[in-house]
Every structure is written in structure tokens, then in C-alpha cells.
Design brief:
The protein has eight helices and 18 strands. Strands 1-18-2-3-4-5-6-9 form an eight-stranded mixed sheet. An eight-stranded mixed sheet has the order 10-11-12-13-14-15-16-17, with no helix packed on it. The chain has a two-stranded antiparallel ribbon with strand order 7-8. The protein has helices at 55-61, 80-83, 86-96, 107-122, 132-135, 201-210, 233-236, 241-244; strands at 2-5, 18-24, 37-42, 45-49, 72-74, 101-104, 124-125, 128-129, 136-139, 142-145, 151-156, 159-165, 183-187, 191-193, 215-219, 247-250, 268-269, 274-278.
């Protein structure tokens, strides 16, 4: 893996290399690091992973790209730092481009996202009563397994995504049915992005044993008040050296400045504004 700096504008195309570009790497309320939203680029293909409240602003003011120019989207779960910019993104596409945003979403989450999060602000317009399908074009991933956890798969052009259910906010231990919908991603069978998740070493172990994972970008709470919802730094420190050595931490607060992540065995902190190119 190599990193390179952004030039004048954030580009949605590259030379065909799989690239990650973090719009932000911070926790839900971070203003210094913005929110952990990720753009994946490969050749002429791209997809935005999560669009939080700050995402449209940061993309425009910091990276000189308009949110309406992003065509493909995947939402990992319905917290505001991951969906807060969806209304703006969809409205701009609908009213200024006369088009819909392509969104990777299961039928289960589509219904929940509209009825429980988006409907209140988006269902009424001068054109009448609107639906999810008026603003978004569903790209439905295919279910490929149920155990040890549900997993779906889809290709966005040359980008292969495997969505696996995670435990983030759970009302009943180990029950996906009674918990908030949340997923992590395996990209091209080589890069693991957990999105927001509890500390689940058994899940990481299963994925790394069944896929040739080169790098891991893992949710990490350093604030101390999100234990049981996010994986904490102290929990992640207990992982084996071989896992930590290829693990970059994201979704952190400003308290991360007091940590020596390299000394503690991690590959480092994920940084916004850099292209991570996976040769």
C-alpha cells in the first residue's frame, strides 16, 4: 500500500488501482477530524461509503468536489454521522440533475431507512407525495451466506463489495433481529472496513481466516464513553500482533493525540485527505 496527497480536486477516477479516500476519520461529534465517511475509487468506478451531516460541506469546501457529482452510495447504518447528508445529496441530484442517487441497500434496510430516518423531511414536495424510489435507485446486493453472520455481495463496476452484518447498537446480545441494522465491508476480498462496530474479535478472526485481508480499517473509540457500542482502544490493544500490524484506526476523537498507536502495535491512524492506494 502507498499513500499520496490529494491534488487540487478530489477525483472520482484513477488509473485502475483500488483506492480509499477518507472524507473524514472522526467520531460522530468530531469537528477536527470530521466524520468517518469513505470514498472508494477504482478506475472509472467509485462509491461513497456513508454521507454524514458534515460530508457535503467537507467534500465541497475542503476537497473541491460537489456532492451531487457522486453517483454511487452505500450506507452502513442510520446514525446521523453516516446518513445526515443523504437528504442534501438526494435533493441536489433530483432538482439539479434530474436524476436519482444509486444506493446499495437491502430491502430490509431500505424500508427502515425511509420510514424511520428520511421520510419526515423528504416525502412531501411540489410534485406530490414522494417515495424512496423517487430519490434513489436501489442496487440490491445478493445474499451469499447466513452464518456465522449474514453477508451480501455486489459489484459496482470493477469494485467488489461484501457487506456483513455487525453488532453496533444491540438491544439483545447477539441478536441481529433485535438490533440496529449495521454492516461492515470487505472490498475486493482484500481490504476490511468495519464501519461502526462493537469489539468482536471472533468476527475479525473469521474474516481474516476466510479472506486474504491485507489491511484493516477499524472503528476505535478513544473517548471512553462509547464502550459496548464502539470497539475501544483498550480492547483493540488486546488483539494479536499480526492483526494490529495491518490495522489502521478510524472514528476517533481528539483524545487520540495522547496515544502512541505505533508503539502499541497498530499500523497507524487512518488520515483524511490522503489516497490509500492498494497495488
Amino acid at each position: 500500500m502507498k499513500t499520496r496527497n490529494i491534488e487540487e480536486n478530489l477525483s472520482l477516477v484513477n488509473n485502475g488501482t483500488l483506492s480509499f479516500f477518507f472524507i473524514g476519520t472522526g467520531s460522530a461529534f468530531s469537528k477536527s477530524y470530521f466524520q468517518t465517511n469513505l470514498l472508494i475509487i477504482k478506475g472509472n468506478d467509485h462509491i461513497l461509503i456513508d454521507c454524514g451531516t458534515l460530508c457535503p460541506y467537507v467534500i465541497d469546501k475542503k476537497y473541491n468536489l460537489k456532492i451531487k457529482n457522486i453517483e454511487n452510495l452505500l450506507v452502513t447504518h442510520p446514525h446521523a454521522d453516516h446518513i445526515g447528508g443523504l437528504e442534501e445529496m438526494a435533493f441536489l441530484s433530483y432538482y439539479t440533475k434530474n436524476s436519482r442517487v444509486n444506493i446499495v441497500i437491502t430491502d430490509e434496510f431500505k424500508k427502515k431507512l425511509w420510514n424511520e430516518s428520511l421520510r419526515g423531511g423528504m416525502q412531501f414536495s411540489e410534485n406530490g407525495k414522494m417515495s424512496f424510489d423517487d430519490y434513489f435507485n436501489q442496487m440490491k446486493p445478493v445474499k451469499i451466506r447466513n452464518k456465522p453472520f449474514p453477508m451480501h455481495e455486489i459489484n459496482i463496476g470493477s469494485i467488489n463489495l461484501k457487506l456483513f452484518r455487525t453488532h453496533h447498537v444491540t438491544t439483545k446480545k447477539d441478536s441481529f433481529r433485535n438490533s440496529q441494522y449495521s454492516v461492515g465491508l470487505i472490498v475486493d476480498d482484500r481490504i476490511l472496513f468495519t464501519a461502526d462496530t462493537q469489539f468482536r474479535p471472533e468476527q475479525i478472526n473469521w474474516i481474516t481466516q476466510n479472506f486474504n485481508i491485507e489491511y484493516i480499517f477499524h472503528d476505535c473509540d478513544v473517548s471512553g464513553f462509547s464502550a459496548g457500542v464502539h470497539a475501544t482502544y483498550q480492547e483493540l490493544k488486546t488483539l494479536p500482533v499480526e492483526l494490529k500490524s495491518k490495522m489502521y484506526l478510524c472514528h476517533y476523537s481528539s483524545k487520540v493525540t495522547g496515544l502512541d498507536v505505533i508503539k502499541d502495535g497498530f499500523a497507524g491512524l487512518a488520515k483524511a485527505g490522503l489516497y490509500y492506494d492498494f497495488d
